[in-house]
Amino acid sequence: MGNFENFKALPHAITLLGMSGVGKTVLSTSLRRSANWFHYSADYRIGTRYLAEHILDNIKFKIMSMQDPFVADLLRSDSIYIEHNISVDNLEPVSTFLGMYGAPSSGGLDMQTFLHRQRLYRDAEIQSMLDVPDFIAKGWRLYGCDSFVNDASGSLCEVVDANDPEDPVLERLTAQSLIVYIRADTAFEETLKDRARTHPKPLFYHPDFLTPRLADMPEDGAGVDPVGFVRPLFPELLAFRRPRYERLARHGLTLETADVFSKGGAPDAETFLATLWEQGGNQLDVYVAICEQRQAERQSG
Predict the structure, then answer these.
(1) Is the pLDDT of residue 61 over 80?
(2) Which residues of 210-247 are buried (b: 16+ CB within 10 A; e: fewer)?
(3) At 211, is the secondary structure helix, strand, or coil?
(4) What is the DSSP string of 122-155?
(5) Residues sharing a CB contact under 8 Å with residue 265, sequence separation 6 or more, in sequence order
(6) What average pLDDT score do residues 41-58 get?
(7) Across residues 225-235, what is the average pLDDT?
(8) I need a labelling partner for 66 at 20 to 30 A (CA). Which of 3, 37, 185, 217 fits?
(9) In whole angstroms, what is the distance from residue 95 CA to residue 237 CA?
(10) What is the pLDDT of residue 1?
(11) Which helix (H) or strand (E) holds 281?
């Protein structure tokens, strides 16, 4: 497989897998800043491409519901327009669109609307992952980024059948990138749970997880506190997703949070690649072949 210097010089493409809050975006940002990796954010792509119209329509609906004829008339006459300000560092519009189930009077969504948005997000996440090969090429051609990091959503394990090698998302990702699962240790999981308790946020849930928890709930969400409904779900979601992450990680490489963030902060690109080199062993053989083919194609093109 050569030596580390040769490995480091390859045009890399990494897909980061792990629970929301485990550090995927922090690591991706460090790779971009330290070595000009192309940072592909799944939620940014979802919000700016696949849910953009839905997000803006929802904002317009909210404004129209305020029954302010001055603003409403300006919108209807196209005298003003509304645009989201989604960025890799600000994905709030995606989160607020996804929403939480509960009483609309408390900011929640009725069950039909909530489940519809869950399905929209699932379809958008799948499409964003199918776009990865195009953005690996675009990152190099348009932006001069030799390497690429796919900052995948924490729910990637929910939209991929890890037991099906012909799953379209799994097939696309493994043909072009190395899946790196950042596994939270017990202490880190407790930190994530504490964060979810104090700052609960909307998430995508697999139907197998969500359906039984909605079974006895009112269709209109009446009397259900959205935050109160969501807050206790996170520890259960961790347990539900853990085996799904493990199955998907068999198609790549697993790193512990302590391996990645060993000095308390996010590693730069060289340090991260050194960790892959040290921990990967023979599992890197297929990945190196993919990178070498990419390198040859770029040199010949």
Answers:
(1) no
(2) beeebeebeeebeebebeebbbebbeebbebbeebbee
(3) helix
(4) HHHHHHHHHTHHHHHHHHHHHH--S-EEEE--TT
(5) 30
(6) 91
(7) 95
(8) 217
(9) 17
(10) 59
(11) none
Nearest residue to 173 (alpha-carbon basis) of 3, 24, 13: 13
Q: State what percent of residues in the chain have pLDDT above 90.
A: 76
Q: Where are the beta strands (DSSP E) in the chain?
A: 13-17, 38-41, 148-151, 178-183, 253-256
Instruction: Round to whole Å and give the CA distance between 297 and 81.
Output: 44
Structure tokens at 135: 């953005």
- The pLDDT of residue 87: 75
Amino acid at 54: H
Amino acid sitting at position 173? L
Length of the chain: 301
Cα–Cα dist 29/151, whole Å: 9
The CA-atom distances, in angstroms, between 22 and each of 123, 152, 272, 294 are 24, 12, 15, 29
State the angle between helix axes of 168-176 and 111-130 in degrees (0 to 180), rounded to the nearest 10: 40
Backbone angles phi, psi at 40, to 5 degrees: -100, 110
Whether residue 75 has pLDDT greater than 80: no
Using CA atoms, how far apart are residues 9 and 227, in angstroms rounded to an integer? 47
In this model, does residue 280 exceed pLDDT 70?
yes
Q: Give the pLDDT mean for 74-86.
A: 76
State the pTM of this model: 0.92
- Cα 244 from Cα 162, distance rounded (Å): 8
Mean pLDDT of the chain: 92
